[in-house]
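Final report, closing paragraph on structural work. Over the funding period we assembled a curated collection of sequence-structure pairs, and we close with a single example.
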Amino acid sequence: MDQDIRTKYQLTGPDAAIVAQILECRHQQVKGTGQPGFDCLIVVIRRIYSHVMLALGGCPDWLKASEDRNPILRLAWRLFEDGTERQDLAARAAVLAELDSKGLPVRIGFEQLCTSSLMNETLWSQDELRLTDILYCMESREEAEGSRDDIASDSLLDLDHVVSPGSILQEVVNASFGPVTKGDKQVMSRPNSPWIVRVLYQPDRDTSQSLDINGLRSILLPIWDRDVDQPDDTFRTVGYNEYSILAVVRLKRGDTSQEYVRTYKEHGANIVSQREPDSFVNNQWSIKEPGRYMLFYGLKTLDYGGDPTSFPEVEEPPISESNNQLLQDVGMFLKSFDSTKKQQTVPSSKESSKATPKRQSPAPEASEAVGNTREGPSDSPDLGTGGPDPDTVTEETPSGSNPRKRAPQISEEELLRREGPKPYFSRKGRGNRSDRGRQNNARSGGRQGQGKLDSSKAPQVPRDEQSRDARRE
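Its predicted structure, as stored:
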């Protein structure tokens, strides 16, 4: 079965919400420590798909060709369902092997993989994701475009508070536009309206001077238009596009540190996923801590999403991933145990009929018994004195049901000894039937079968029966 989300759901209409939930909340399952750089990138790409492709109502024309070249972009569309772990791991291993054949080893870090030529050529240099519009030389008026790696590199902003303490992210954004030097040329860099903006961020080593998440939640990209009242190459700002943070990746420092990813909703809350593998999801770190981070911003699609600063940097799930997995394992064990127990306790119809002696037809008076319990005395001379032990005699039951034990029969003498003589009994132990019914009902505490018997609704004895008993007496 094809595990691509797009083969099961539409990206528009009622399915869009389902697709968003799958992309944002179903991380891939990994074994052991996994490959954090690769795993974090899959999470980021899925968050971008959720934010961009659903807003567009479909995939752009260039994505199919990019997916053919880049297996990462294909894998990011996978369903990652609970029952397909083996197939998902096999697909993941195939992608890692393909990347290795392209010169991207398994243990490569997130930054190296995300900024690789493969990602630049298939994703970041596309017109919809580049930070600037087409560059042109201010002197010759000719295009001054570089390679796809150059376009993607120019689209990656750098905010370094170690080198430039106190610098502001918006200043870094604004400095990217206008006349800039490229090699020996002066070129005009005009802002584009990309779907995604990427930022490399390094906080101050002094955490008291570091920006918290609220200082990094959003950025503005200017919208330029040519100023017709001024000479050529003069532009003016006519508005701004607002971008909100979608994902943060904590980059590794050296060979020992771990890489983690965290994603956010457009309105500001972090996303708590269905599963959060410890190898690449960790809620114990903060963006204020020293290190290096890559931030991903998405063009805002909500007219008003509320105040994002009202949310904490991270709100942990109510239960950890390890405890969640433990509960799932316990649930599966109890389910299998209950199923095994039922199979052991329910005999087959053939075994039940062989192990259970057939019940003899009851005496005519037994028809007055209530449920499976015979309350009144019997005329049978052998009752309770011969045949199988009444405590072990069972009834034949329909196929597939459990045999039921028949209640032991009590002789008239034993009954009288236990309860004392009753005025309703004659010398032969055959009182009036209606009296005997009242007597049995009184002894049984008003019970009949499994329910409660309402004496006011008890069935009346037909008149001809009463007359016949009266004549008999």
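The chain has a mean pLDDT of 79. Residues 348-430 form one domain. We thank the funder for supporting this effort.
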